[in-house]
Design brief:
By secondary structure, the protein is mainly α. The protein has 16 helices and no strands. The radius of gyration is 20 Å and the shape is globular.
């Protein structure tokens, strides 16, 4: 059905939005966040897509083999967004929705098993999903609170999934295309390795530098700045943040962390702004804990 919806006769974003809405069960708000846009824009896209699908009299069946390559990129992107919403749900009180992560991995493996869709890019996406999925159990506490990367117990990481991820990442290194999935899988690989060495974060920073050249997103910009902080220092990271728009609570949380040692008052202001813009209960508790730890230094 994903391949049926991803008809090249429809604009790319208009293919993905109805697939996320109808086939994956996303809300309008979740789709809007995935595209970094507003709900009104998504509603208009969905309306236009329905009109186009009706005009085309779309049949919900696998297209002919010759049409599959032209549709594969959008199918991969839908699976990627499905996994992201499962791994980090920005609109639910529960941060992690494991069933979406499992569904994304199953869909990726189905593509691997089909000779028409068994491509290096497909393997890179599966590797990315495997690496991130390996840390799922360490991301949530027994009280259902989110555990940040630096606080995770690496002994809980699923080594079988990490090994599978390595296999898929190695098998993705054929051909001459370097996709965003390859680079994100590389970042996820280093994040699946325990330890906090400067060399590890230099590799992550390098991957983000390449990623931003081919797929610029606000989240990748902030993640790159965090990698710069781990590689150099807070001053270098704050310098990179200068002039960036305040897009969401991640921006304020990162800025608050960078200011903690040198300017606790500014850090407090940033964390308060993060609290005002955060929508998930679990992350609000994390930000509140940061504020409590900061109070003695004010």
């Amino acid at each position: 059905m994903l391949f049926a919806v991803c008809d090249p006769a429809i604009a790319s974003e208009a293919q993905i939005a109805p697939a996320l809405r109808v086939l994956c069960g996303f809300t309008i708000e979740e789709i809007a966040r995935a595209f970094f846009t507003g709900k009104d824009t998504i509603n208009k896209r969905l309306f236009r897509a329905k009109e186009k699908l009706r005009d085309l009299r779309l049949r919900l069946e696998m297209p002919p083999t010759g049409q599959i390559p032209a549709r594969l990129d959008n199918v991969l992107h839908i699976i990627y967004l499905l996994f992201n919403e499962g791994y980090y749900s920005s609109s639910h009180d529960t941060i992690l929705r494991k069933h979406l992560c499992s569904e994304a991995l199953s869909l990726g493996l189905m593509l691997r098993d089909n000779p028409d869709t068994n491509t290096p890019k497909t393997h890179a996406l599966i590797a990315l999903i495997c690496f991130h999925s390996s840390r799922i159990e360490s991301r949530i506490s027994p009280t259902n609170d989110l555990i940040l990367y630096d606080d995770q117990d690496s002994r809980q990481w699923d080594q079988t999934l990490i090994a599978k991820g390595v296999e898929f990442l190695e098998s993705s290194a054929t051909g001459n295309e370097l996709s965003s999935y390859h680079l994100e899988a590389g970042i996820a690989f280093f994040n699946s390795q325990p330890g906090d060495s400067r060399e590890k974060w230099q590799q992550i920073l390098h991957h983000y530098d390449l990623l931003l050249q081919i797929n610029y997103t606000p989240s990748s910009v902030l993640n790159r700045i965090y990698a710069l902080y781990k590689t150099e220092d807070a001053a270098a990271a704050l310098n990179e943040m200068a002039g960036l728009p305040a897009t969401n609570h991640f921006y304020y949380t990162l800025k608050g962390q960078l200011y903690e040692e040198t300017n606790p008052e500014e850090s407090f202001i940033c964390y308060q702004q993060a609290l005002d813009t955060c929508q998930t209960a679990s992350e609000r508790r994390i930000i509140e804990a940061k504020i409590r730890r900061l109070l003695p230094s004010l």
